[in-house]
Amino acid sequence: MSSDDPSPRSESGRLATALDATDRAIVAELLTDGRISVRALAEKIHISRANAYARIGRMVDDGTITGFTTRLNPARVGLGTTAYVTVTIQQNAWRAVSERLRLVPYIEHFALVGGDYDVLALVRAPDNTALREVVLEQIQGIPNVRSTRTWLVFEEAPGRGADWDV
Question: Which of 81, 129, 148, 157 has the smallest C-beta neighbourhood within 10 Å, fewest atoms?
Answer without folding.
Answer: 157
